[in-house]
Amino acid sequence: KQMVLIIEDEQTQRRLLREYLEKLNFHVLDVEHGERGVEAWAGNSDIRIVITDLVMPETDGYDVIRTIRKETSRDTHVVVLTAHDDKQILVKALSMGADDFISKPIDLNELALRMKSAKRQLRLKDQNKLVSKMAQLAAARSGEIDSHLKRTSEYCRILADDIRRNKPEIGM
Hints:
This protein is an alpha/beta fold. It has helices spanning 11-23, 34-42, 61-70, 87-96, 108-142, 146-166, and strands at 3-7, 27-31, 47-53, 77-82, 100-103. It has six helices and five strands; from the N terminus they run βαβαβαβαβαα. The radius of gyration is 18 Å and the shape is elongated.
């Protein structure tokens, strides 16, 4: 099961999201404010998806996004949760590094599709990392130069992307 962290100060929203996500076969951890959310995320590398409310007392969703994006060694898909219709708020969150958003009130069908997209994006990032690491290993073993490694890595990424698009039954 993919682990999701919910950071939401409203208990009813947290419980509703938890129930929805558990129905979608996610393992869910939820906390009531940004500071605890950042601590939970930092202490658990299994958390790959974070759903955070933007408006919370003290440590808000923007602070959560900022903290997560400072850690460059870890891929985390950040989804903002908002009841606001103000596009500037959404643009600010996306420009700070949020990957997606869900509007309140939460629609189960929309949530399911956005979580499916999050899993797909994380899988693609993992595949790209794997291809890159394999190319680095091959180069290290054969003593090849860095530029050749980069070309080979890019070629592998292009091939993997083509296979993913044209042969979906492989599941790449």
